[in-house]
Amino acid sequence: MVKMIGNEPSSELEWDEPLGRVPIFSYGSGHMLNDITSSCWFTYLLVFLTDVGLSPSDAAIVMLSGQLADGFTTIFVGELIDRFGHFKLWHAGGSILVAISFSSVFGSCLPCKLTGTNSSTLETVGYSIFASIFNVGWAVTQVAHMSMVNCMTSNPTSRVALVSCRNAFTMVANLSLYGIALLIFTLMHSVSVLVQYRWIAYTAISIGCCFVVAFLIGTKEPG
């Protein structure tokens, strides 16, 4: 994206000015949902899928379908965002897909419920669909969030601060996820493991969505 700078000197000065702490902090929080769900995804999903009855090969198919969707989406969504802009709108749409599909993956097999059957093929297809939707939303959110940096300011120090804050929130997300898991495994040891995994996933989504709201409110759409 190319930042369009007005002809007025004040616009150029504003573009070059360093950002304050609030916009940097609110920007950094915008990837929290992606980070905390991906940490849960790569740590617990394979174990969860095998616990619900999928074979290791079928569970691998679910993971692979998501990664393929992520790869293709990342290519095309970057071009679309460059062409149409509206970073926050793309970010919000991707975050909605992430929240809905992630809760569906760690929920029960929706196609199985609708058809009243529990075949392994249908389970694999059902989980693969939501895994693909999750990774599409994840890629949209990631690309929209990362591409905002160069359009928010031309100040090199502020750009470094934005990326550093984003990376710091990634660490916070990872630590938070494992803290949540420790708490749930400790307090809910009497329930089944599947229920524990679902509570971890739902808690992660709730926390991540709060940070998405903070990002959308506190971050100005690049003009």
From TrEMBL:
<dbReference type="GO" id="GO:0005886">
    <property type="term" value="C:plasma membrane"/>
</dbReference>
<dbReference type="GO" id="GO:0015293">
    <property type="term" value="F:symporter activity"/>
</dbReference>
<feature type="transmembrane region" description="Helical">
    <location>
        <begin position="168"/>
        <end position="187"/>
    </location>
</feature>
<keyword id="KW-1133">Transmembrane helix</keyword>
<dbReference type="GO" id="GO:0008643">
    <property type="term" value="P:carbohydrate transport"/>
</dbReference>
<feature type="transmembrane region" description="Helical">
    <location>
        <begin position="89"/>
        <end position="107"/>
    </location>
</feature>
<dbReference type="InterPro" id="IPR036259">
    <property type="entry name" value="MFS_trans_sf"/>
</dbReference>
<feature type="transmembrane region" description="Helical">
    <location>
        <begin position="127"/>
        <end position="147"/>
    </location>
</feature>
<dbReference type="InterPro" id="IPR039672">
    <property type="entry name" value="MFS_2"/>
</dbReference>
<dbReference type="Pfam" id="PF13347">
    <property type="entry name" value="MFS_2"/>
</dbReference>
<protein>
    <recommendedName>
        <fullName>Major facilitator superfamily (MFS) profile domain-containing protein</fullName>
    </recommendedName>
</protein>
<keyword id="KW-0472">Membrane</keyword>
<feature type="transmembrane region" description="Helical">
    <location>
        <begin position="199"/>
        <end position="218"/>
    </location>
</feature>
<comment type="similarity">
    <text>Belongs to the major facilitator superfamily.</text>
</comment>
<keyword id="KW-0812">Transmembrane</keyword>
